[in-house]
Design a protein that fits this description.
The structure is a single chain. The chain has about 300 residues and is of the alpha/beta class. Helix content is about 40%, strand content about 25%. The strands form 2 sheets. Strands 3, 4, 5, 6, 7, 8, 9, 10 and 11 form a 9-stranded mixed β-sheet that branches. A two-stranded antiparallel sheet has the order 1-2. Helix 1 crosses helix 3, helix 2 crosses helix 3 and helix 5 crosses helix 9. The longest helix is centred in the first third of the chain and has 28 residues.
Length: about 300
Amino acid sequence: MLDIRRLHMLKTVVARGSITAAAQSLGLTAGAVSQQLAALRREVGVDVLRPDGRTVALTEAGRVLVEHADRIFDAVREAESAVAAVKDTVGAAVTLAALPSTVARVVAPALTALAARHPRLTVTCLVTDQAQLRELSLGTVDVVLGQRYHHMPDATPRGVVAHRLLDDPLLVVTAADRSDGCPVPLRELAAHRLVLPPPDTDCGQAVLHACRLAGLTPSAPYVTADVAAQLALARAGLATALVPRTAIEPAAPGIRTSPVEDRPIHRELFAATRRADTADPTANAVVAALRTVARQ
């Protein structure tokens, strides 16, 4: 019988790109992972990985094995969720991955509410811009607070359910003495020095897409994904920023915000769980807390 732990190691190696990276994420040594994969190879009687430059890739047999492994993992999680639903009790621990721009106005209030309602629940919160949904698929996190921009295709992985939380428009942010807060046509930003997210980020792509539709080639002497840095540059009068509304404290001093008048840019915030966890009381408690804050 196949060892489910070895199957999980195989999937993690493929997702991380190397045995060393997989070992780090699993808290093991590279030698230990290699030994377990060698044992898996003996179990199935054929190579499951092949060298691919400096990384590794699945063989055809490995690809088939991972496809079946995904269904096995889903079945195990469904069984765990079914038992948890019967118990109808919130568990002792949960891991939430969230975007930095959601911490102040969504994550922090939600965690405060969770602590009051479920004092025995320990929440580990990973604040990261990188590959949250992949971590959900790998089982390293339980709930993801993620984003999706309206012009981008839905890239939700198989086996993941995204629960919509709110529609979050990007606002034009300037120094308090530089604007009156009235709606701003996007094309007017051609006359502004902008601070924009890097073009390879979701937000950067969304801004550039909207600018192209408006016939605008933005001038951006400042490029950063750090919202705090964007707001600091705007506050100093050095640049105009385009920042999601939930990333801005309502009483933030020294800045003024204006909506985009003609081609608004929106992101959708969502809470994602594994499909098998939809009946799990612990995951549901986290999603419910996030949803309550989003409604407010």
